[in-house]
Amino acid sequence: MEDDNESGFALNESAMTSTTGVFDLLIKRGAKREYSVPLHAATEAIKEYGDHAPMMKHLLELGFEIDEMDNCVRGPYGRGSPLISAVRYRKVERARFLLENGADPYPKAFWGRSAFDEAQRLHDTEFLELFQEYFPVNKTILDS
């Protein structure tokens, strides 16, 4: 595989649609981690691609950062952290997995909002209550 940013696309697609073995093979064959945001891709994947918890766990074991922002790879099309992606794509169980593994709903993306802010903007009480489980805050904040 060439040393270019195209290899990041392959890693992202693998994280979204394939197995941990295929992902590891891409890395072994030269795909560049720095050009990818596979934890975001696994978080955003549609349910028809299967259970993404094993891939997400594997990516964390490989050292991908749980709160990594994606603007360094996606540029102005970045969504922020994997947790922000979970909120935007309504992936509650994936958000729970991220929170259980240390994700923080408060870091702001380059465009100014956090996962918590996004859940508030969308009036998504399911996510706000989920965040409350892991990061208790004053109830009046949730009501605003």
Detailed description of the structure:
InterPro entries: Ankyrin_rpt-contain_sf. The chain has 144 residues and is mostly helical. It has a single domain (5-134), classed as Serine Threonine Protein Phosphatase 5, Tetratricopeptide repeat, CATH 1.25.40.20. Helix content is 55%, strand content 0%. α1 packs antiparallel against α2 (20-28). The protein is globular. The termini are far apart. 36% of the residues are buried.
Secondary-structure map:
Elements: H1 6-17, H2 20-28, H3 38-44, H4 53-61, H5 71-74, H6 82-88, H7 92-100, H8 115-121, H9 125-134, H10 139-143
InterPro entries: Ankyrin_rpt-contain_sf
Quick summary of this structure?
The protein is mainly alpha-helical and 144 residues long.
Helix content: 40-55%
Instruction: Please report the first level of CATH classification, the CATH class.
Output: Mainly Alpha
Q: Main sheet? A: none
Count of alpha/pi helices: 10
CATH H level, superfamily name: Ankyrin repeat-containing domain
Q: State which percent range the strand residues make up.
A: under 5%
